[in-house]
């Protein structure tokens, strides 16, 4: 299965700001990813990225956003998340794109699945009371111990990964998404409502049945 392609290698510059953890970067020129449906996910020149879509509390097991084969994927995903704002449908689309981008960047199915689940946890964290403290305690600099809240988030993440991968690996992000929805509900009690589309074919079939029924009713009079 083809997963898409990147426009080029990204060109960035680190941003140093007083009072911050200095993990922000700015793109010096436009960078993009074309997904399997030929949609282009653009990160314009000047975009500021910080890798915040995966909670820092999970970096020790998932990895930081600026290393590995998913470095380029994290850039377009950061921008897509910013553009999505609070639109859950757009955020879910950005997360599926992230899976494709990870695969296109060279990550294995297993790695891409774990990374995908990392960004799903990042999106879900504000809705899960038990994870609030772990996300709120994200600080810069070295530490010798992890907080109890961070360990709780890590355990929940591992339980979600186990559930999603239990049936075996899949290279289809939509299947991964469905499994993730079920795992988030089981582990964190998060109920995900996904809007469903009625197919035009199904709508035509229903209209046809109604029309036939009306004709038969008129004949019966």
Keywords for this entry:
single chain, 221 residues, mainly alpha, 3-stranded antiparallel beta sheet, 6 strands, globular
Question: Your description of this structure?
Answer:
This protein is mainly alpha-helical and 221 residues long. It has one domain (5-220). It has eight helices and six strands, in the order ββββββαααααααα. It has helices spanning 59-62, 71-84, 88-105, 109-124, 132-136, 148-165, 173-188, 200-220, and strands at 5-6, 12-14, 25-27, 31-34, 40-43, 48-49. β4 (31-34) and β5 (40-43) form a beta hairpin. The longest helix has 21 residues, at 200-220. The N and C termini lie far apart (58 Å). The model has no long low-confidence stretch (mean pLDDT 86).
Head-to-tail CA distance between termini: 58 Å
- Using only C-alpha atoms, the radius of gyration works out to 21 Å
**What is the helical fraction, as a range of percent?**
40-55%
Q: Which stretches of 5+ consecutive residues score pLDDT under 50?
A: none
Residue fraction in strands: 5-15%
**Discrete helix count:** 8
The number of distinct β-strands equals: 6
Q: What's the pLDDT, averaged over the residues?
A: 86
Biggest sheet, spatial arrangement of strands: 1-4-5
Going by helix content, strand content and strand pairing, the class is mainly alpha
N-to-C series of helices and strands: EEEEEEHHHHHHHH
Shape category = globular
Structural domain count: 1
Largest sheet data? 3 strands, antiparallel
């Amino acid at each position: 299965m083809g997963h898409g392609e990147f426009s080029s290698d990204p060109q960035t510059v680190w941003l140093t700001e007083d009072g911050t953890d200095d993990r922000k970067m700015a793109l010096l020129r436009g960078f993009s990813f074309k997904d399997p449906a030929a949609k282009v996910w653009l990160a314009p020149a000047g975009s500021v990225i910080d890798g915040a879509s995966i909670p820092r509390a999970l970096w020790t097991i998932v990895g930081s956003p600026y290393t590995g084969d998913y470095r380029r994927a994290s850039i377009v995903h950061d921008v897509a998340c910013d553009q999505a704002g609070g639109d859950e449908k757009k955020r879910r689309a950005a997360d599926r794109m992230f899976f494709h981008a990870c695969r296109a960047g060279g990550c294995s199915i297993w790695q891409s699945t774990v990374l995908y689940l990392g960004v799903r946890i990042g999106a879900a964290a504000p809705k899960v009371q038990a994870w609030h403290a772990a996300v709120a305690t994200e600080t810069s600099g070295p530490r010798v111990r992890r907080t109890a809240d961070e360990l709780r988030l890590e355990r929940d993440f591992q339980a979600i990964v186990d559930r999603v991968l239990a049936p075996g690996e899949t290279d289809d992000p939509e299947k991964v998404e469905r499994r993730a929805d079920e795992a988030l509900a089981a582990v964190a009690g998060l109920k995900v409502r996904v809007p469903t589309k009625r197919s035009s074919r199904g709508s035509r079939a229903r209209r046809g049945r109604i029309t036939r029924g009306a004709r038969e009713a008129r004949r019966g009079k």
